[in-house]
Amino acid sequence: MSIRARKPIKTVVSKAAAYDTILRPIITEKATIANENGQVTFAVAIDATKPQIKAAVEMLFSVKVVAVNTIVQKGKTKTFKGRLGRRSDMKKAMVTLADGQNIDLMGV
Fold first, then answer.
1. Is 45 exposed, middle or buried (0-12, 13-18, 19+ CB in 10 A)?
2. What is the pTM of this model?
3. Cα within 13 Å of Cα(69), Cβ side
């Protein structure tokens, strides 16, 4: 009896779902340096999965995505006018593009 590897399932998202998944690009000094090496950083929906993020980026920007790394940044507790408040959690996705591909974030 041999063990067969599963085929990866291709995730298909609609254009509206893609816009709901990818919220905005993150443009910081660190993200700009990573962009020069073919990695783009986006703020994404907190419940978005890696296959959904990959499908959304490929659809919206017409590029080939090699890998997606995600991180959930926990919200800080801050004081505003003497009252405690809490920022909401944020999910970031670092998307690695295929060689020769790039996304121009300044035109977005």
1. middle
2. 0.83
3. 7
